[in-house]
Amino acid sequence: MEDDIRATLAQLEAARTLIVICHYDPDGDAIGTMLGLTWALRGMGKRVTPACRDGAPWPLDFLPGSAEVVTDLAGLEADTVVVVDCSDARRGGKLYKQAVELGVPIINIDHHVTNTRFGAVNLVRPDRVAAAEVVFELLGRMGFDFDLNTATCLLTGLVTDTRSFKTPNVDQRVLRAAITLMDIGVSLPEVVQMAMERKQFHDLAILGRALGDVRFEDGVAWSALSLEAWRATDGGAMSAAPRNFSTLLNSVEEAAVGVFFTEMANRRIDISMRSKPPVNLTVLFAEGAPLHGQGGGHPQASGAEIDGPLEAAISRLVPALKALVSAQT
Ligand code: 5GP
Ligand code: MN
Fold first, then answer.
1. Phi and psi of 124, rounded to 5°?
2. Based on the structure, what is the number of domains in the chain?
3. Most buried of 121, 243, 268, 327 (most Cβ within 10 A)?
């Protein structure tokens, strides 16, 4: 057995009271993995609290356990903390800082190639499509008898990070994992419908605005959403739909990279990027590269958070992306 799996199993088996954290602005893999691991560890008789700064936002609030997600660690006790789907400590935000203050071992379970190995124990598998797949395999090693709650949450992680099994990293291994979870009784069409297909009217209004401003130059397609434009819609919560706009931009045949800029409430800029092979976005995070220390991700799907204002962020990043395209294609 690999050393990191052995160390993770030993730490988890010894734990009695755990907190499982995922990153803020969570996606389906973050929430699904956090809640899936929560249910599994509870099934092993442990006390487990799931925690995310933003709770389990729509459309992920259909998942079992979503109402129990705490948004702050104040007053909580634990002998072990698990952080899932976080490429670095920054992505854990305030909850990660609170976890460090607890002074207990932190287990880092992730699948980002840019993971900074911030844990006392690090189980990082960049060749896995989702953090949910890493946890699925870990639980299999523990001989865990999957229950419906755990299976529903982990299948959601697989579905969302592969965009319903459409990303280039999907293979038989991934589909077998999905079938194992379906054998427990989870409905794949229901998970796809609930986690991927639903949109709120507000999301369409935002998409409409973002589409109106789409730009394309030198292989890079981009668009942005300012806080003002977002407020000019009905002001509903920002869901995953506009964030995934980078996927739509990258689907443009002529584009090698699609990038979407979102101005957040604190006026910082969230950047969501997608590329077509061979363009590898993760080089943007290397030492000395434009986004070093500000984000992370996978070769064809990465993200970062940088200083505003919005126009400055765009004029800083778009040339860097054009240069990347010209160097790699
Ligand atoms: P997304 O575009 O789906 O928001 O994120 C793409 C990938 O980049 C995800 O795997 C996400 O976890 C990773 N990522 C790492 N840091 C950041 C960040 O600061 N913002 C965003 N949006 N994604 C990030
Ligand atoms: Mn993930």
1. -120, 120
2. 2
3. 121
